[in-house]
Amino acid sequence: MHMLRTLALLLAVAMVGQSTAQVLVFTKQDTLRGSITPERAWWDLTYYHLEVRANPEDSTLQGKNTIIYQVLTPDHRMQLDLQEPMKLTNASQDGKELSFQRNGNVYYIDLVKEQIPDQINTVLVHFEGKPVVTKRPPWDAVLTWKYDQHGNPFFATSCQGEGASTWWPCKDHMYDEPDSMLMSFTVPGNLTAVGNGRLRAVDNNNKEKTKTFHWFVSNPISNYCVNMNAGHYTHFSEVFEGEKGNLDCDYYVLSDNLEKAKKHFQQAPMMLEAFEYWFGPYPFYEDSYKLVEVPYPGMEHQSSVTYGNGFENGFIGRGDISHS
């Protein structure tokens, strides 16, 4: 009898809890973001070339994205995602301008060219805007704009929760990833821009006093893992002899933190060795391994892990990470 009374009491408490719990309300925008819509399903994403110009003076971004895809079934309307306040300014295919319509955080692009199954096609879109400045990175999106102690711009993206479409136009759903990707980031000439993968080239744009850094990822990559980081960085590197051979390890830190970083990052090869022992080889040998200092605690971006923990063990100076 005592057990029955206990069960009844627990049931009553659970019912009261359910009645007072906050009810989640989903919107049409949630459906468009989270569903494999007809405007997404007919094409398979294969490649991005994302080009972004960052303007620290007014916290704006401008750029374009070349999207290469394979036609699965014939259709003429493509869904791309780009969240407000960012906006799409132009779309084209084979040099011909395309019309598009906006529905909140979704753009529908009307294609004129016949879309033939198995055909490989390209769409080029231009975009601009002033993305949201994050209040609690990396737990909300999208950009962290800061300055280092010498007044140099120091900024980074983080968008795991809200998605990559908070700052660049893409097919923002995890069911489809590009097979590879090129990122070209243009920043003031005294800065270094760091992205995912390997650095292919640096362009000196002397007339406008900027530099463009070209980073290439040869592995499939989730949109939210794509990151852009910029600062007055100093670079150092080493080679880790891992289970799949030599792994290039690169470190980008603010110049004033070089000596602290060299000492603290001695733990990186130890971490890699432990993880490979327990979980198998690091999965992105082709794209290298990087630690990049940023003005927020950090995030696990693919092949470009961001770090802002003050070069101390534990989380933000707490010796025991279990208390974080």
Characterization of this structure:
The chain is α+β, with helices and mostly antiparallel strands. It is built from 5 helices and 20 strands. The protein has an 8-stranded mixed beta sheet with strand order 5-4-8-2-1-11-14-13. Strands 16-17-18-20-19 form a 5-stranded mixed beta sheet, covered by helices on one side. A hairpin with a 5-residue loop joins strand 19 (about 300) and strand 20. The two termini are about 45 Å apart.
Task: Outline the fold blueprint.
Elements: H1 2-20, H2 28-34, H3 38-41, E1 43-55, E2 60-71, E3 77-81, E4 87-93, E5 96-97, E6 99-103, E7 106-110, E8 120-129, E9 143-147, E10 153-157, E11 180-188, E12 192-194, E13 198-205, E14 210-217, E15 229-231, E16 233-242, E17 245-254, H4 258-264, H5 267-279, E18 289-293, E19 298-299, E20 305-307
Parallel strand pairs: 1-11, 17-18, 18-20
Antiparallel strand pairs: 1-2, 2-8, 3-7, 4-5, 4-8, 6-7, 9-10, 10-15, 11-14, 12-15, 13-14, 16-17, 19-20
What is the structure about, briefly put?
With 324 residues, this protein is α+β, with helices and mostly antiparallel strands. It has helices spanning 2-20, 28-34, 38-41, 258-264, 267-279; strands spanning 43-55, 60-71, 77-81, 87-93, 96-97, 99-103, 106-110, 120-129, 143-147, 153-157, 180-188, 192-194, 198-205, 210-217, 229-231, 233-242, 245-254, 289-293, 298-299, 305-307. The strands form four sheets. An eight-stranded mixed β-sheet has the order 5-4-8-2-1-11-14-13.
